[in-house]
Design brief:
234 residues, ten-stranded mixed sheet, alpha+beta, 3 helices, 36% strand, Alpha-D-Glucose-1,6-Bisphosphate, Chain A, domain 4
Length: 234
């Protein structure tokens, strides 16, 4: 995933103080206390067929998100963009590095990602474990399940390791050239992250990542006959 194998969706670029103030106040309007732990629609882009949702848990330490999108591309192509680990950094939110660490089988692998952090906070990195559930006509979808494994390799200097991340990404073919993508999960970025940064990431990262994914699907070519590195169909 990279959703959204991802959304790791833990970093944001620097924003000015007025922008931070606006983000916090916007989120207060859509996150009343009475709706904690309930999904709230944040983005509804009818033109691009992207909806994103957020949820605030009680401890406030995790970024919860949900995505419902239709991607203009076949299920195989959307999946292969996720499986192209080295190029995830070209479309995933604020990602500076992405690379495969270990291929266990055509249904399981480990990979590395690093991210830009907001100004004055250390950058982050994550070690992620992905399990692929290939498509079958009986199920009607394929799925990638991603979770963080922070102890898989030693920490790197000047980087804070993501401590927890669970994301499920489901790909359902709509037509030959359209794929329904659903992703849901959370990220615990580890260390100290300002509240405004957590809110900004939660609200913007999933949508921006979907825009990047759509662009990659539209512009990336895979040679006919080249096998996928991981299973797409049973």
């Amino acid at each position: 995933m990279k959703f959204l194998t991802g959304l790791c969706l833990v970093m944001a670029t620097a924003v000015t103080a007025p922008t931070v103030w606006a983000v916090d106040n916007d989120l207060k309007e859509i996150r009343p206390e009475a709706t904690r732990n309930e999904w709230q629609l944040v983005k509804n882009d009818a033109t691009r067929n992207i909806k994103t949702y957020i949820k605030q848990n009680e401890d406030g330490k995790r970024i919860h998100f949900k995505i419902d999108a239709v991607i203009e591309g076949s299920m195989e192509k959307v999946a292969r963009v996720h499986f192209d680990i080295d190029n995830i950094k070209r479309w995933y939110w604020e990602t500076t590095d992405s690379r495969l660490l270990k291929k266990v089988s055509d249904r399981e692998y480990y990979y590395y990602m690093s991210y830009n952090a907001p100004v004055s906070t250390p950058d982050r990195d994550a070690i992620l474990h992905a399990v692929v559930e290939p498509y079958s006509p009986k199920k009607g979808y394929m799925e990638i399940k991603v979770n963080a494994v922070p102890e898989f390799m030693p920490p790197k200097p000047n980087l804070v390791r993501v401590q927890a991340q669970d994301i499920n990404i489901r790909f359902t073919p709509v037509t030959r050239d359209k794929t329904h993508l659903e992703a849901e999960g959370f990220v615990d970025p580890g260390g100290m992250v300002p509240t405004w940064a957590m809110n900004f990431i939660q609200r913007n990262a999933p949508y921006t990542t979907m825009l990047g994914l759509q662009r990659m699907v539209a512009t990336t070519s895979f040679r006919d006959g080249d096998p996928s590195p991981f299973a797409i169909s049973e």
